[in-house]
Amino acid sequence: MSTLYLLHKPYRMLSQFTDKQGRATLADVIAVPGVYAAGRLDYDSEGLLLLSDDGELIHRISHPRHKQPKTYWVQVEGDISEAALTSLRQGITLKDGPTQPAKARRIDPPASAPRQPPIDPKRHPSTSWLELTISEGRNRQVRRMTAHVGFPTLRLIRTAIGPWQLDGLAPGEWRKETLHAPRPTDKHPNRRKAPQKDQRARPATKHRKP
Description:
The protein is of the alpha+beta class. 12% of the residues lie in helices and 28% in strands. The protein has three helices and eleven strands. The strands form two sheets. Strands 1, 2, 3, 4, 7, 8, 9, 10 and 11 form a nine-stranded mixed beta sheet that branches. A two-stranded antiparallel ribbon has the order 5-6. Strand 9 (153-161) and strand 10 form a beta hairpin.
């Protein structure tokens, strides 16, 4: 069995446990020793982040070869057009090459927790929301995709990774799931272990940001 932790990473928080510059880190919201993030979520993005102490599971989730689809709620500047959505669905060409076709649809403003600080309505008087699903993991890909079709991203919330969903977790909250697939033993030479990094090992007593 493997244990997976589903965390709602808040805005302006690093997807790691330590930072020499004193910025907010995962250690501020989850106190489970020995876990590591499966992939990352940018400092200025929010939403679902998966963590585990099982290196093989982390590899299966985060490696691009496995192409776990990732779904985002994206607030963009302006009133996004059907032509822009069609371009995202067909795939566009960025500086690092063409993207795979995405699932893209316009949505009503989701019932998400207010961002702190909020988007300034004076600077951005017109915004709209879309739901975007991609199966790649390039650096800041969603932001680059929406900018390419003329609608810069203002807010980005990841709601799903593969079969795992945010499911109403508030920023800073997390929940634990147990996966019943067998874990490899140390006798298997090909087992991948989680990288060894500094962790703040504290007992987990709460599932909510202090």
